[in-house]
Design goal:
The structure holds 2 protein chains of 2 kinds. By secondary structure, chain A is of the alpha/beta class. Chain A has 26 helices and 52 strands. Chain A folds into 7 domains: 193 residues, FAD/NAD(P)-binding domain (3-Layer(bba) Sandwich), CATH 3.50.50.60; 81 residues, Alpha-Beta Plaits, CATH 3.30.70; 152 residues, FAD/NAD(P)-binding domain (3-Layer(bba) Sandwich); 124 residues, Rossmann fold, CATH 3.40.50; 176 residues, FAD/NAD(P)-binding domain, CATH 3.50.50.60; 141 residues, 3-Layer(bba) Sandwich (FAD/NAD(P)-binding domain), CATH 3.50.50.60; 67 residues, Alpha-Beta Plaits (2-Layer Sandwich), CATH 3.30.70.3270. In chain A, strands 5-2-1-13-24 form a 5-stranded parallel beta sheet, sandwiched between helices. Chain A has a 5-stranded parallel beta sheet with strand order 15-22-16-17-18. Chain A has a 5-stranded parallel beta sheet with strand order 32-31-30-36-47, with helices on one face. Chain A is globular, with a radius of gyration of 30 Å. Chain B contains 14 helices and 8 strands. In chain B, helix 13 links the parallel strand 7 and strand 8. Chain B has a 4-stranded parallel beta sheet with strand order 2-1-3-4. A 4-stranded parallel beta sheet of chain B has the order 6-5-7-8. The longest helix of chain B has 18 residues. By secondary structure, chain B is an alpha/beta fold. Classes of the chains: A alpha/beta, B alpha/beta. Chains A and B meet through helix 24, strand 50, strand 51, helix 25 and helix 26 of A and helix 4 and helix 12 of B.
Chain lengths: 1009, 323
């Protein structure tokens, strides 16, 4: 290879592109993030809440938007499209067409003067056309970049040469009607394409009557639920009233081979459940019904979410898909016909509103891009990949992730995105740092001795502004001690406001800063960085949360909410005035990795890290690599597992950067990110090991379904993995019955095991194909062959595999040769003969997780899987820094998903390994050894195990005794202050929450009473 | 090294630093040691008046709670009024509920209140649970007389309004404060003084030892009541090497001075208790109970104490059972 370029082009600025860009940029590569619309954020920016935690979508996304905007290694190219890709891996030339925006982005301050004067109103895409925007517009308030764009198709000046208002009012001379499209060439080493999906166009299916105003798409409904949506969060019918009875129809544009839509869209069952749940939170009397074919709650926490929706919230799930929406020609009222589940026949029911759960389809622009990139697509229009390399397109050096590869949800997309970043950077590790610039901050200003505090009160659009009297709070803030300046902002977190805050520091010589807006969990880092850009220590910043703690919870009492906002601001100012500068410390670290578990996930992660020239130890407790996959013989795409495993094992074992240790386990483990110390013990080894990061890839086992469906009583009842082995040898059985959820989705194991349906359907096809005369019956609760694997389900039915549904309250009864099943639709029992019965048992976690979790100070979830840091946006990280999750250790997965997550874990790990040094946080807690009496209560409350007790001898006047004293490891401490609160003697100080600071807040609170 | 005499000289004669007055535990062991009969704790109390408090334990949170209680009209201790509301006997639990909120010592502090109410009923003295503010003991001894006076005034009013004739407390600090530092129109007793003559119908047959709380013992001169209460319940009391007027302190008082030296005292005290081979160490003050149990429930403790540490009322009420 002649030339390598240390830059990557990322096409598509949705959550996938954002995550890829951040990973790549943080590991020292230059990133061009290319997005066709005016802002990054993609579809996630349109969502109200996200399942299964009901977190606010924009609140988790917007810090990432801002991170991209501020990252020095990311060059943002919005309103741009790729028109050509030439070259070879390591050295591509990508041609990008930048569309004319008619606004000079460098001059626009998003002051909105132009918007008020623009006479043109057009349907607002962000709200799915349910309200209007102007021809000069910002997609949404948190948009990045936060600059206005003129919509050339609708602008009066550009179409008819009239108006010109925006040019007249713009005070910054930012309007440029002469702007032209331009093409630029960028030079990159690799390309990631992830331009996502398009929602299915429901108007293709006339029978579902999207033309009727009481029928909406799920995305329109999502915008209606959002407080930033067209009706400020109130679900509204055409006549202005609010519906009392809403129905969702699933699989609109999914699972419909008759219209050429072969795939399941993977997310609709969950988003419909979420939408129903959120709508019911808005209106307690609301009735909701979800009409479905199967409820596909297959991801982590989904099944539990579905059960809660059904059993606790009273959402009605009806296992029937209405064939259309009926509209009364006189009243325009809508009704649905469906087949009742109790066998009582066809029913008709009226609803106030019908929501069509539209699926995820490949977008036209994605198809164009695929052609430009010259990568292969599958029959459904998704990018073709292999199970063992789900992120690699047919063209080397070009990678794919997210919903462009297959329909998938946010966590899978985020994992993919990190994984693709890992793949895209593997080739370029030698070029790290060559094209990027370190972010430099000005030296800290002399803050003097006089406290000068500034206060910015944020309206958060209507979120705060419509409830709290913001100008009143600003005036009040000006009266508080040491406050020398106060003002309001519409969105304090927008890029221009942040710059404004930095300028305020300069103009008013501020040395302490308070922003009254939202939660520090998401927004504190942004404001702190702003202070650093202004030459102030970041710890001189204080956030007053007047949104979550005030406007959101006191919507019905504006006066009291304003009073409380003042209380909160007064308390924050009292604390801000006492804040002290704090400094981070550099720590040397070990840049080797340990991967625990040598299955496909562990091997993939190890190989990804090794390819970036870091040393890896791969630990496997069995005598050979391969893990769970060794028990299976065929992949769901029909190839053998050997075909995939053997070359991978060979690559791993021959890689000079990987040390494979078999028949051994980690027996001890301590330390923290960068400096872990462990002990490995096994058949041929008994030694200490040091490493900087760890990836847990311990996988799962197949549950032994003892006690379920007569397993263990008769020899002809086996599990799915036993069937896999038999299938290789040839199965001698005429009648085969497969039972799904054998020991899963029940009180003991309430989760769905995700892969079993696809595996069972695949094996049913194998059974049928090897002997078409054989009877194969699958007894199931919901068939969850999500995404592209829906095609296997279709194929199985075409091959006459019989599918019969059962419910948990009426399980099939198994005797030696027959199984009895109750059919709901027929309302009668059936008896089926079998020679061979196969049970699909769930994946269960190995017992060793219980030992490993405390060693790494990470948590397990209720089902024994490792707990990720954030279910949506940090699916491969643990709450403990430097520990990552790959494969089924986090939750059940299919092979391709395990592989992609393993690459993601490797990518996240390499963002650490590629650093020159680690840094502590500034606000670590410290112990005064003279005051510590060694009671050890800090060790019980610290979530990170930062305090350690060390033995000392204490000599007092009369008594000499041995005790212990606490030391806090600054590399581990996160400054939460639990230890300080627990310490009886006051020996521990939480440096950013000192007693005087807290007392000041409490006293300030008291002043208001 | 600081001594009472050096302190008096530093503050009263040389009028220099008064830092060392914060070191005194005000346990009163010096009452008997002083040849001139100087009431040194009283001197310390007066000297601290209006001065900046020394290091408060628990980041001053208990002090803050009392401060807030003094200023916020409706704020009282948390245990709801209950019991016999017509009774002329009132029981005041003190700050037990706050102890439960903050301490993680395997001790259920509220059970002291429950046990006290149960024992009073057993003695045919069914009482009314009083809802007052903090007695102000710690404020007084931390030198914050202003807050103490506020609490005293409000409590006195509340007690008068309640119409009780006898105020019973299970806390040695409350007992001392309400008896000596308040001027109440009713009788104040520590519950041990009622229990000493009671026939509870218990035959405990347990080896116990008795820790004298400084406020009950040396400050108020009550050494015998808890012992008699234990003996009449059938328990065998073995005395520690230092007991009654020579008793060692639990190590912390007035929510100040938790440090190596006070821990050394605590260790010495528990070592003495261990030497008696008693099964239970009995206290009559929730603060002693907290401090001694803190030592006992240390994480990775270098010492191991097998015996239980219990409040007198809890020890006795447990054996009442369903009787």
């Amino acid at each position: 290879m002649s030339k390598l370029v240390g830059a990557v082009a990322v096409a598509g600025g949705g959550i996938a592109g954002i995550q890829s860009a951040i990973d790549l940029a943080s590991s020292g590569l230059k990133v061009y993030l290319i997005e066709s619309s005016t802002t990054i954020g993609g579809k996630m920016a349109q969502l109200d809440k996200t399942f299964p935690t009901l977190d606010c979508s924009m609140c988790t996304l917007s810090p990432k938007l801002a991170e991209v905007a501020r990252h020095p290694n990311i060059e943002l190219m919005t309103y741009s499209e790729i028109t050509g890709i030439k070259g070879d891996p390591g050295d591509f030339t990508v041609t990008v067409k930048k569309k004319a925006t008619y606004v000079d982005y460098d001059k626009c301050t998003a002051c909105e003067l132009c918007v008020s004067k623009c006479p043109v109103k057009v349907p607002d895409e962000y709200n799915e056309g349910q309200n209007k925007r102007k021809a000069i517009y910002l997609a949404f308030p948190q948009a990045v970049p936060r600059v206005f764009t003129i919509d050339a198709d609708n602008c009066l000046y550009l179409t008819k040469g009239k108006c010109g208002n925006c040019l007249k009012v713009c005070e910054n001379d930012a309007i440029n009607y002469e702007d032209k499209d331009e093409e630029v060439d960028i030079n990159v080493g690799s390309v990631i394409i992830n331009t996502g999906f398009e929602p299915y166009d429901a108007s293709n299916l006339e029978q579902y009557r999207i033309d009727n105003p009481n029928v909406v798409t799920s995305l329109e409904f999502e915008r209606q639920l959002s407080s930033s949506g067209p009706f400020e969060g109130h679900v509204t019918l055409d006549d202005g009233s609010h519906p009392k009875n809403i129905a969702w129809i699933q699989c609109i544009g999914s699972r419909s081979p008759e219209i050429g839509r072969n795939t399941c869209s993977s997310v609709c069952c969950m988003y419909a459940t979420k939408e129903a749940m959120v709508a019911m939170e808005h209106d307690l009397d609301l009735k909701t019904t979800i009409f479905n074919i199967d409820v596909r709650a297959f991801g982590k926490g989904f099944e539990e979410f579905y059960q809660k929706a059904k059993n606790e919230k009273g959402i009605r799930f009806i296992n029937s898909r209405p064939s259309g929406v009926e509209v009364d020609p006189v009243t325009d009222n809508v009704s649905l016909k469906y087949e009742a589940e109790d066998g009582s026949g066809i029913k008709r029911e009226d609803f106030d509103m019908v929501v069509l759960s539209i699926g995820l389809t490949p977008s036209e622009s994605s198809k164009n891009l695929a052609q430009i990139a010259n990568v292969e697509m599958d029959d459904n229009g998704f990018i073709k990949t292999k199970i063992e390399s789900p992120l690699e397109t047919s063209k080397p050096g070009i990678f794919v992730c997210g919903a462009m590869q297959a329909p998938k949800d946010i966590p899978d997309t985020v994992a993919d995105a990190s994984g693709a970043a890992s793949k895209a950077s593997s080739l370029l590790s030698s070029e790290r740092g060559t094209l990027v610039t370190e972010k430099e901050y000005p030296p800290e200003r002399d803050i003097g001795t006089q406290i000068r505090t500034g206060v910015v009160v944020c309206r958060c659009g209507i979120n705060i502004g419509n409830i709290v009297d913001v100008p009143d709070v600003v005036e009040y803030a000006k009266t508080l001690p040491h406050v020398v300046f106060a003002k309001e902002e519409v969105y304090a977190c927008s890029t221009d406001s942040l710059e404004g805050i930095a300028n305020l520091v300069e103009e008013h010589n501020l040395n302490h800063m308070v922003v009254a807006s939202c939660t520090p969990r998401t927004h504190e880092p942004l404001f702190r960085e702003t202070l650093m850009e202004a030459g102030l220590n970041p710890y001189l910043f204080e956030l007053a949360n007047i949104r979550e703690h005030c406007s959101w919870v006191h919507q019905n009492n504006k006066e009291e909410a304003t009073r409380k906002a003042k209380d909160i601001v007064r308390m924050s100012v009292s604390r801000a005035n006492l804040l002290q500068p704090l400094y981070q410390e550099k720590i040397e670290f070990n840049n080797e990795a340990l991967v625990v578990g040598g299955g496909i996930a562990g091997m993939t992660a190890a190989l990804d890290i090794a390819q970036k020239d870091f040393k890896v130890t791969l630990l496997e407790k069995e005598s050979e690599l391969g893990g769970m996959m060794l028990k299976f013989t065929q992949l769901q795409d029909g190839r053998t597992t050997k075909e995939v495993l053997e070359p991978l094992i060979q690559k791993v074992e021959s890689n000079p950067n990987i040390t494979v240790v078999k028949e051994a386990e980690l027996t001890e483990q301590e330390g923290s990110m960068g400096n872990f110390k462990g002990h490995i013990k096994g058949a041929n080894i008994d030694e200490d090991i040091e490493f900087g990061v760890a990836i847990i890839a311990t996988g799962t086992n197949e549950f032994e379904p003892e006690g379920y469906f007569s397993y263990g009583e008769y020899p002809n009842i086996i599990t799915q993995s036993q069937l896999e082995q038999k299938l290789d040898e040839g199965v001698d059985a005429k009648d085969v019955v497969i039972i799904q959820c054998a020991g899963g989705r029940n009180d003991d194991r309430p989760y769905c095991s995700r892969a079993c349906c696809t595996v069972a359907v695949k094996n049913a096809i194998r059974l049928k194909e090897s002997d078409p005369g054989r009877n194969v019956t699958i007894l199931y609760r919901d068939i969850r062959t999500f995404g592209v694997w829906e095609e296997l389900y279709t194929k199985a039915r075409e091959l006459d595999v019989i599918f019969m549904r059962y419910t948990e309250d009426k399980e099939p009864e198994v005797s030696e040769k027959t199984v009895r099943i109750y059919d709901h639709l027929m309302n009668m029992d059936f008896e089926i003969n079998y020679d061979l019965m196969v049970l699909s048992a769930p994946m269960v976690t190995p017992e060793t997780n219980e030992l490993l979790a405390p060693m790494f100070k990470v948590a397990l979830d209720a089902n024994g899987f490792f707990l990720e840091a954030h279910i949506k946006l940090r699916p491969v990280e643990c709450a403990t820094d430097g520990v990552f999750l790959a494969g089924t250790s986090q939750a059940p997965k299919l092979v391709d998903e395990s592989v992609s997550q393993a690459s993601a874990a490797a990518s996240r790990a390499c963002t650490i390994l590629s650093r020159d040094f680690l840094e502590t946080i500034g606000n670590v807690s410290v112990v005064d050894p003279d005051l510590c009496i060694g009671c050890g209560r800090c060790t019980t409350v610290c979530p990170y195990k930062a305090p350690e007790l060390k033995e000392v001898t204490v000599e007092t006047e009369e008594i000499v005794y041995t005790t212990k004293k606490c030391e806090i490891n600054p590399a581990i401490c996160k400054g939460c202050g639990c230890c300080a609160a627990e310490c009886p003697t006051g020996a521990i100080t939480a440096r950013h929450f000192t007693t005087p600071q807290i007392m000041a807040v409490i006293k300030a609170y008291g002043e208001g009473i | 090294m600081t001594t009472p005499r050096s302190n008096i000289y530093q503050t009263n004669v040389y009028r220099k630093s008064s830092d060392d007055i914060w070191n005194c535990l005000t346990c009163g062991l010096c009452y008997d040691g002083c040849p001139q009969g100087v009431d040194y704790p009283e001197f310390v109390k007066e000297e601290r008046e209006g001065k900046q408090q020394g290091d408060l334990v628990h980041k001053g949170v208990f002090t803050l709670l009392s401060d807030l209680m003094a200023d916020l009209k409706e704020s009282k201790t948390n245990l709801a009024e209950s019991g016999n509301n017509d009774s002329k006997i009132g029981y005041y639990p003190g700050c037990l509920d706050f102890h439960d909120m903050f301490f993680d010592l395997d001790v259920d502090f509220k059970s002291i209140a429950d046990s006290s109410m149960k024992l009073l009923e057993k003695m045919d003295m069914s009482a009314k649970m009083l809802q007052l503010k903090c007695c102000g003991h710690d404020q007084l001894w931390q030198g914050d007389t202003e807050t103490f006076e506020k609490l005293k005034e409000q409590n006195t009013k509340l007690i008068k309004e309640s119409g009780i004739e006898t105020l019973v407390t299970s806390c040695a600090e409350c007992y001392r404060t309400l008896s000596m530092d308040y001027d109440l129109p009713c009788e104040v007793v520590h519950i041990s003084q009622l229990l000493k003559n009671a026939d509870l119908g218990i035959d405990s047959n347990t080896d116990v030892t008795c820790h004298d709380a400084c406020r009950l013992g040396r400050h108020m001169g009550e050494y015998d009541a808890p012992r008699e209460a234990l003996s009449s319940a059938g328990a065998t009391v073995t005395e520690m090497a230092h007991s009654k007027n020579e008793s060692w302190c639990c190590g912390v008082s007035t929510m100040m001075s938790c440090n190596d030296r006070s821990k050394a005292l605590r260790k010495a005290r528990l070592d003495e208790a261990k030497d008696t081979e008693a099964k239970v160490l009995i206290t009559s003050c929730p603060k002693c109970l907290a401090h001694l149990n803190c030592m006992k429930t240390e994480q990775e403790s270098v010492e191991n104490y097998e015996f239980d540490i219990k409040d007198l009322t809890v020890f006795l009420a447990e054996q009442l059972g369903g009787k």
